[in-house]
Amino acid sequence: MPSVKIPPVLRKHTGDQNTIEVAGSNVGEVLNALVAEYPDTSDQLFAGEGELNRFVNVYLNDEDVRVLDGLETAVSDSDTVMILPAMAGGQ
Predict the structure, then answer these.
(1) For residues 62 and 91, what is the distance between their CA atoms, to the nearest angstrom?
(2) How does pLDDT run across 44-53, given as a tens digit for each residue?
(3) Smallest Cα–Cα separation from 61: which of 5, 12, 6?
């Protein structure tokens, strides 16, 4: 199964786990499986109508899925999906 790297800000919703294995054949299925197992992650990951929240970046093996096929990007059992919340700040 693909693994999902969980950022520190979401770990309170995943039992403090930093990596979780979930089933799915594409990024969207993997993230939906994560939400099915840990429902409190939904608001952080998805905006209305199942689109990725614009303040979250998702990578498949170090490649931004937005430059690939988005949520339809195919994954294999050896792949890693990484969730990175967008950071803002500065002066």
Answers:
(1) 29
(2) 999 878 889 8
(3) 5
